[in-house]
Structure formats: structure tokens, C-alpha cells
Amino acid sequence: MNRVFTGLAALTMGMALAINGCNTNKPADETVGALEAETASASATVEAIDYTTRLVTLQWPDGRVSSYKIGPDVRNFDQIKRGDIVRASVSEAAVVWVGPADGSQPTLGVDRVVVRSKPGERPGMMVADTATISARVLRVDSVGRTITVQGPAGNTRVLKVAPQVNLADITVGNLISISVTESVALWVEKP
Known about the structure:
This protein is mainly beta and 191 residues long.
């Protein structure tokens, strides 16, 4: 499942490069930004599998047992066996930048990348969804290092701001751009 790891690495590197040239000491009419990322991983053992209904039962390290219906788009399902280890990695990376606004209203754009194992390879896949949102700044908390923004649907959200971002460059009423990528990678390993 090297393609999954290659896809995740390329995605992470691409997001890091997207803000590589950002300098927080630039004037307010130029771009400033930061990257934040979090990752969580988990493993479970295949306890049972029903190939007809495509139901997989997993036992987690804490003893919990969960069953999942696997869709027809998962390739090589027939290779999964009792005792196999299913590994999952979930990542979220956010790039936030402030710069000249392209428009006067918040906007939203969404992209999806799916990488699946080839026929005959061990089952696995990676899905990455990236949402690029412009949002209006409603509040700046320089002590708590947060900003409150309102998105295109009118919803508000409080965002943590990385230490390298100069909050003096962010003012109420600014449009900021946020690019959030959430990725999930799942793969099966033989014990």
C-alpha cells in the first residue's frame, strides 16, 4: 500500500509548500499564513468476515468489537482474512492565510482525491478531501490566539492561530482563506 503513503506524503508536502513563502512580517495587504496538522492512528484485528454481505467485524485493542459494511468500491475484499490487522490513519491539516480578497463575499470550494489499491494488491485506500473557504473575520483574540470567522453559509467558528502568525495583520472585517484537508488511509496487513 505504498501508494497510500506516497499520496499522503505528497499531500502533506504540497500543503507545507503552499505556505513556505509566507512571512508574517509582511504588510496587511500581502499574504501571511500558517500550517497546523494533526494525525491519529489506530489498529484492529479482523475477528470475522462475511464475504456475501461484505460485513467485517473488528476487535480493537481495548476489547471493543465493531462491525462495518464494506462497499463494493473496496478492491480485493476477498483477500481480507480473519486475524488480519486493519490499520487506519486520519489526518487533518489546515493552511490559513490572510491576503488581498478576490471578492467581497465568503466562498467555498471542495476537492476530493481517492487512491485505491491495484487489483491483486492487499486491500487499502486513501481518501483526502480539501475544502478551501474564504471567511470574514468577526473577532480577533490576541491573548488567546484565536480568531472568530463567519463562513459562506453564515456559520461561525473559532480558529486557533499558530504562534508565527502576526495577529496585527488580521482585523475584523478581513476576508481570510482557509484550506483544510482531511485524509483517511486504511490498509490491511497480514499478521
